[in-house]
Amino acid sequence: xxxxxxxxxxxxxxxxxxxxxxxxxxxxxxxxxxxxxxxxxxxxxxxxxxxxxxxxxxxxxxxxxxxxxxxxxxxxxxxxxxxxxxxxxxxxxxxxxxxxxxxxxxxxxxxxxxxxxxxxxxxxxxxxxxxxxxxxxxxxxxxxxxxxxxxxxxxxxxxxxxxxxxxxxxxxxxxxxxxxxxxxxxxxxxxxxxxxxxxxxxxxxxxxxxxxxxxxxxxxxxxxxxxxxxxxxxxxxxxxxxxxxxxxxxxxxxxxxxxxxxxxxxxxxxxxxxxxxxxxxxxxxxxxxxxxxxxxxxxxxxxxxxxxxxxxxxxxxxxxxxxxxxxxxxxxxxxxxxxxxxxxxxxxxxxxxxxxxxxxxxxxxxxxxx
Length: 370
What we know:
Blueprint: H1 3-29, H2 33-54, H3 60-68, H4 84-95, H5 101-113, H6 123-148, H7 151-163, E1 175-180, E2 183-188, H8 196-209, H9 234-270, H10 279-288, H11 294-301, H12 305-317, E3 321-324, E4 327-330, H13 334-337, H14 346-366
Antiparallel strand pairs: 1-2, 3-4
Helix pairs in contact: 1-9, 2-5, 2-8, 2-9, 2-10, 4-5, 4-6, 5-11, 6-7, 6-8, 7-9, 10-12, 11-12
């Protein structure tokens, strides 16, 4: 592709991305509180999955439900700085303080329901990266972000600043010297991954502070490692950023449309619940976060087992949730998730026996036989 053709493509993609930002801002501004809340829960799951994939956990999409249900943690690829639990801990800790109340609520509930997601060592090494990303974005907003008004240009400034920072620029692969029987050998090691996940995590607060979006919506993969490469020509980096921003916005629209469809589907069945009832929260968690056990819902909702069962029963009667093995999940998701809710393995088999016994106890409690 010639330079002029590449430049024309970049300008066209930036124009489309700017138009998409405007559409997203409009839809979020006029969305109902119920839709925004459901969108926040759906966004939280995507933020976690996509951030973990960008950090090197390639099985995040397929393995997240198993991990959420208490299965084995995600496996990292070479170049990851810490285990998956450390990344999840830092992400949830940050999002629990989000200025978007719905996202903060979703993060708090998920952290309570699945504390095993954020157990493990390594979080302390990642916290400074998020702090640096937050400082970088805040500095740009305070300097000229609010006056800029162009979110694509705003993201370009963030990428330019981050590219010069060693915490965010893609690392170089180095050879590790190793002495084998008196002879020196160089063993290639994986290059450290660019911490683009941290930038995308904090970008939402930048959008909200600069009044580009009405809520602090993170945009996973808006900034990619390719856009942070200093060895790429500026025009190539601009083209890569325009493509990644547009793709990230397209994905946000998909999530928003799914949340709207889900909200419309469940609204008739949820109207009968009192405003303070927690059953709709249980449905929201199962529908947008993933399959959960009664014990996990007990922790999240600060309820008793009997209380959680009394929440799930009318939802099951209404056709909104269903039990698959020892887990509960949204009925709309049961066919797709059935094969990957509970992982295999001897430790999980033992856990299944315990959960099965608890499930039988749940059944007795629900029929008042105890």
